[in-house]
Design brief:
globular; alpha/beta; 218 residues; 5 strands
């Protein structure tokens, strides 16, 4: 199996070197480029394909949010993850709107960085706990009060229920596929069906709605 290719942009040389060491120590990952500025990264990125891009938001020459936007335009298939000191809601929401698929805070990230990169590439959305909590609270606050769906019971198939249960337990698509003996594309089809039946748009909403309807344990 080919290693997952990674590029990163981080202006702090010491932090950049630590991230490089962590990625180099994981045999399933291969670091192709580590840049210290946005311009260096984008110049390289324009001519080199990569699976995962790690972006610091506080770059000296161009905001990390703009790096994410440009990177997503240049390589739509590349998964982008933020690694930053900014834990505020504004930066978090703007990063997701720009196209980031994960959002990690630098404090406490290093030990699990390789696992987070693998999760992102596998279809997950890695987030530091405080970020996930902010996102959930914001969604709950903006969601209309849950009312019983009179006359419209939600019925998931046995397979869909199994997939949803594994999603709620934190498994990513390749892990679910392996456990269930199915292909990743089949799992993605089940997930799309679940979203349609629950009238939701992402994993967090699906798990929340399923619990409200009594479709999940715990």
């Amino acid at each position: 199996m080919e290693p997952i290719t990674v590029a990163l942009v981080e202006d702090d040389a010491r932090v950049r070197e630590r991230f490089q060491r962590v990625i180099a120590a994981e045999p399933t990952l291969r670091l192709l480029h580590a840049a210290g500025t946005a311009q260096e990264l984008l110049t390289w990125f324009a001519e080199n394909a990569v699976d995962v891009l790690l972006v610091d938001l506080g770059l000296p020459d161009t905001p990390g949010l703009e790096v994410i936007r440009q990177a997503r335009r240049m390589q739509p298939a590349c998964a982008v993850m933020v690694i930053t000191m900014f834990a505020d809601e504004a930066n978090m929401l703007q990063a997701f709107e720009a196209g980031a698929g994960g959002y990690l805070l630098k404090d406490g990230t290093e030990a699990d960085l390789a696992a987070h990169v693998l999760s992102l590439h596998g279809g997950g959305s890695p987030m530091s706990p405080i970020i996930a909590r902010q996102l959930l609270v914001r969604w709950q606050a903006s969601a209309p009060p849950t009312a019983p769906r009179v006359g419209v019971p939600v019925a998931l198939s046995k397979r869909e229920s199994e997939v949803l249960d594994l999603i709620a337990r934190g498994f990513i698509y390749p892990e679910i596929a392996q456990q269930m003996g199915l292909s990743v594309s089949t799992i993605q089809t089940h997930v799309r069906n679940i979203y349609g039946k629950l009238d939701v748009h992402n994993k967090t909403e699906a798990v929340f709605e399923a619990r409200q309807l009594g479709l999940l344990r715990g």
